[in-house]
Amino acid sequence: MVDSTEIHRLLDDLRQGSRRALARSITLVESRRASDREAADFLMDKVDRTLVQRDNPNPLGWSMAVTGPPGAGKSTLIDLLGCQALDRGHRVAVLAIDPSSAKSGGSILGDKTRMQRLATRDQAFVRPSPAGTMLGGTARATQEAMDLCRFAGFDWVMVETVGVGQNETEVSNLVDWTLLVLLGRSGDELQGIKRGIVEAADTVLVNKADGDGIDAALETCSFYRSALALFPPHALEGWQVPCLTLSALKETGLDAFWSTLQTLQNLPGFDPWLRAKRSEQRIHQYRRKLNQTLWAVMGEGRGSEVGQTIEEGVRTGQYSPAAAVSKTMEALGLQGEGIHKAIQKG
Ligand SMILES: Nc1nc2c(ncn2[C@@H]2O[C@H](COP(=O)(O)OP(=O)(O)OP(=O)(O)O)[C@@H](O)[C@H]2O)c(=O)[nH]1
Ligand SMILES: [Mg+2]
Predict the structure, then answer these.
(1) Which pLDDT score is estimated for 179?
(2) Site to substitute for ligand 1 among 114, 160, 171, most atoms within 8 A of C-beta
């Protein structure tokens, strides 16, 4: 249980940029306990108000998702980009959605991590989060964790996501920019990567362009360049999604990445586009939260008696899924009765 004095202390410490307070706040927003939820909502309300003010008139900070197939080199790249961003004067935070920690309680800061260099830099904040139950390979509370990072003065936030399942495009709703990291293989393997993932990418990077891998990387890159040219125009006017080759291991090809980023941020429409994107994401966040909250109120289909009874009714065929939704609304006092009656009559 966290009381309001403690929340105010947390807020003060976060304002000072304390990484300890940041870690604690993220733990709070990740907690599933109802009492923590209340405290977290109180905290996030204050955080959000400040962030909205700070983003006016010009949006501040920069966040990127790093997506891509397993083993493409996402963590290695984040480690490198993170260190380079620190050297450029940014404060860097990394949130890694860790599929294993949910089961084992393990941490990517163990020997599995490829972010050793960043993790040892004093100014950086690296945090693994369990993947939880959220779709999209993103932890349930990732959006809130990102907001907390920004509030604590981390102006460069990167999120590593798991795999390339069909729901991973959800992560692009959380960040300013999505980097898709691919391996150099023969071009026709585009099939293996779902089109939606490529469509959600703002920049495509073909990694491991080193040693014997150079030719394959170049070939893959030219294949993607042709494919990307056929995609609908990007929401940011003047931006054509580029494909670059690089080696996160040998640290080559990064200059092109940084200059691409500069070109992007210098586009005349950049600020209005980013402002609009962030506004739209707030709507997403509201809807996602509303879903989660309703689901939680219903005991996630298990905990509450009403939820259990209704689910049992769906399972046995007593209620259609549609009738069950209106029954649920009714149980929550949300004028479901009319709809329910209409279904019964129909
Ligand atoms: N040759 C070469 N190997 C690389 C490069 N980048 C990463 N690797 C290696 O590829 C392996 C996977 O790298 P990670 O950074 O862990 O890849 P990842 O995409 O984060 O992997 P998951 O998180 O497990 O999906 C490691 O052995 C890296 O050392 C690169 O540019 N060139
Ligand atoms: Mg990784």
Answers:
(1) 95
(2) 114
Helix (H, G, I), strand (E, B) or coil at 6: helix
Cα–Cα distance between 230 and 233 in angstroms, integer?
9
Tokens of 170: 């959800």
Which stretches of 131-258 are assigned E, i.e. beta strand? 156-160, 177-183, 203-207, 243-245
Q: Is the peptide bond before 59 cis (omega within 30 degrees of 0)?
A: no
What is the Å distance from ligand 2's center to 136 Cα? Answer: 16
- Quote the pLDDT of residue 1: 58
Report all structural domains of the chain as residue ranges with CATH numbers, in order of start: 59-269 (3.40.50.300), 298-345 (no CATH)
- Give the helix ranges, DSSP H, for the chain: 4-15, 19-30, 34-54, 74-87, 101-104, 116-120, 142-151, 195-199, 214-229, 254-265, 270-297, 305-316, 321-331, 336-345
160 CA from centroid of ligand 2 (Å): 7
The maximal CA–CA distance of the chain, rounded, in angstroms, is 70
Which residues are paired to 160 by β-bridges?
66, 96
| Residue range 217-237, pLDDT digits in tens | 999 999 899 989 998 999 999
* Ligand 1 site, residue 71, Cβ cutoff 6 A: yes
Give per-residue pLDDT as tens, 65-83.
Answer: 998 888 899 999 999 999 9
